[in-house]
Amino acid sequence: MSYNVFRIRYGIAIADPDMPSPRYHNVVFVETETNGGGYIHHVTGEITSGMSYASKSAKRPEDSDAFYAKDYLGTIQISNYPHRMDDVLKAQPPPPK
Fold it and tell me: What is the pLDDT at residue 43?
């Protein structure tokens, strides 16, 4: 058995006027619930003070007002989730200050 994994893009509430638009907050979403809910894996914080990896439970992405797009990435075995996902994503360097 496995969970579906997606890249989700959400619109940004306050755009940076010095950056080209449109810009999106990209997350890895693992669908663990039959109703489409699951877990978001993403980078949080502010670019000026530093960012770090975090995960949190989430409702079905399409139900969010900020939802923009959903791209299928693949699957992860239920027996490997969340520890293998966390290992891979924690190993990625966050955006620099």
Answer: 95
The residues spanned by each domain of the chain are: 2-90
Q: 9: part of which helix (H) or strand (E)?
A: strand 2-11
CA-CA distance, 80 to 24, in Å (whole number)? 28
Global pTM reads 0.91
Structure-token match 């058995």, residue found: 1
Q: For the chain, give the percent of residues with pLDDT over 90.
A: 77
CA distance 91 to 79: 20
Phi, psi dihedral angles at 86 (to 5 degrees): -60, -40
Cα–Cα distances in angstroms (integers) from residue 10 to residues 16, 67, 73, in the given order: 15, 5, 16
How far apart are alpha carbons 51 and 72 in whole angstroms? 25
Q: How far is CA 60 from CA 30, 54, 78, 85, in A?
A: 10, 18, 19, 19
Cα 83 to Cα 95: distance, rounded to the nearest angstrom: 22
